[in-house]
Write a structure and sequence with these properties.
Layout (H helix, E strand, L loop, with lengths): L7 H10 L4 H12 L3 E2 L2 H14 L7 H12 L5 E3 L9 E9 L5 H10 L7 H13 L5 E4 L4 H12 L4 E5 L12 H4 L7 E4 L5 E4 L5 H13 L4 E10 H7 L1 E2 L1 H17 L4 H9 L2 E16 L2 E10 L7 E7 L1 E7 L2 E5 L3 E5 L20 E7 L8 H7 L13 H9 L1
Parallel strand pairs: 2-5, 3-4, 4-5
Antiparallel strand pairs: 1-2, 3-8, 5-9, 6-7, 6-8, 10-11, 10-16, 11-12, 12-13, 13-14, 15-16
């Protein structure tokens, strides 16, 4: 089995040392490392806050921030590299947790009765499993999505001595595996490795397409207590350059910094966020309904808010499949995916917390903000895979700018 110490840039250096003079090896490694940006603690905190905003659903940062601060206190560093500086022949990996809403409860009960111990560091083990299976060393980490996958990618990159790429497979969080830019660019998710909380090892060598990769991986999650660690989308540096959204992490830092500085300057963080994103204030109100259930591996929620302030007397509804997908103002379509629908705390500008995955905390006041999706999502291929018709609605995607203009007409 491969030793984890051979991961990252060090693996490339050691392999190159077999056929190159030591001075050349040092020069090559130093050149690559000189292009890293070592994130400060404040940048890491802003990154986590901004990533939760990007998530298009509720997302708590408290535990994630605590974990990275503890890691920093123990000497961890987080190095970021731009996609442009990534060597074309490097191999990257995207770690995440694939969820399983509606988990098989009898499996959880049985494993508890059996006394099966839970396994730690499942994300690291999933990456190790895939590296062994495809006989390669990974050199860098690419974030799979926003929200919790951000802290997963950060901690794994530091533990394995790799930089994290300033890019993302999807920018937003998304409910399904195939809802990512690599699939739109013809780069498959598979092969993937899954490692369950009990230590089961699963390889999906090839899905006939990413829809089937989603089906198979989700099945493992549902049958494994509601989630499993996944190592997915092994890509070369060259593939990362055209198969991801560049600058996604820098954008998350910008969002986190924006709301933090607004609060420090006693400005409205929502207004500040709308300004930097060219977004729209969609609604502000009290959560009066958040009907949530798990089914087929996902968390489904029907949400209603009753307006306050300038929206008093109005009602807002949101359809959630893990993330905010479609919203309505007084029964009229207001925003649809692939555009982004953020549910934010009006005091902090950060993503709301509580309510479970995709849920809204009843009785809380929430501000809904809409932002145009990334241009890579607003293609016919992107709209097909994450637009309203994909989720069973009988209407087409309409750009947020057009829908918001109708409000004022």
């Amino acid at each position: 089995m491969r030793s984890l110490k051979f991961f990252g840039a060090l693996s490339l250096i050691l392999l190159a040392a077999q056929c190159a003079p030591a001075s050349n090896t040092r020069t090559a490694s130093e050149t690559i490392a000189s292009k890293y940006h070592t994130l400060t603690e404040q940048e890491v905190v802003d990154l986590l806050v901004g990533s939760c905003i990007q998530a298009t659903r509720g997302c708590g940062t408290g535990n994630s921030i605590l974990r990275v601060k503890e890691a920093i206190a123990k000497g961890a560093t987080f190095n970021m590299i731009s996609p442009e500086d990534l060597p074309d022949d490097w191999m990257t990996i995207s770690p995440a947790i694939i969820g399983g809403g509606g988990a098989w409860e009898y499996v959880i009960e049985r494993t508890n009765e059996q006394g099966i111990e839970l396994v730690e560091n499942t994300n690291v083990k999933a990456v190790q499993l895939l590296a062994d299976h495809i006989d390669t060393d990974f050199n860098a980490v690419v974030r799979a999505e926003s929200a919790g996958a951000m802290v997963t990618a950060l901690l794994l990159s530091s533990e394995l001595g790799m930089p994290i790429v300033d890019a993302c497979l999807s920018v937003r969080a998304r409910p399904e595996v195939q809802q990512q830019i690599p699939w739109l660019k013809g780069i498959p998710t598979t092969p993937v490795a899954l490692f369950t909380r009990w230590g089961d090892e699963v390889i999906i060598q090839k899905g006939i397409d990413d829809y089937r990769a989603e089906d198979l991986a989700r099945g493992v999650a549902v049958s494994s207590g509601g989630g499993a660690a996944i190592a997915m989308n092994p890509m070369t540096g060259a593939q990362v350059k055209h198969g991801t959204v560049p600058g996604a992490l820098s954008d998350a830092i910008r969002l986190g910094r924006t709301v933090r500085e607004a609060r420090e300057q006693e400005r409205d963080p929502i207004e500040a966020l709308i300004e930097v994103t060219d977004g729209y204030k969609l609604f502000q109100g009290i959560v009066t309904k958040s009907d949530q259930h798990g089914d087929r591996g996902f968390s489904w929620t029907d949400v209603e808010l009753t307006g306050v302030g300038e929206f008093e007397g109005q009602k807002y509804q949101v359809f959630v499949k893990n993330e905010n997908i479609v919203s309505w103002l007084d029964g009229q379509i207001d925003v649809t995916s692939p555009d982004y629908i953020y549910n934010l705390n009006p005091e902090t500008g950060e993503a709301v917390t509580g309510g479970g995955l995709g849920g809204y905390p009843l009785g809380d006041e929430v501000v809904m903000v809409g932002v145009a999706g990334h241009p890579l999502w607003l293609t016919p291929e992107g709209i097909e895979v994450i637009g309203p018709r994909h989720f069973g609605f009988d209407f087409d995607y309409t750009p947020i700018a057009e829908l918001q203009k109708r409000r004022s007409d």
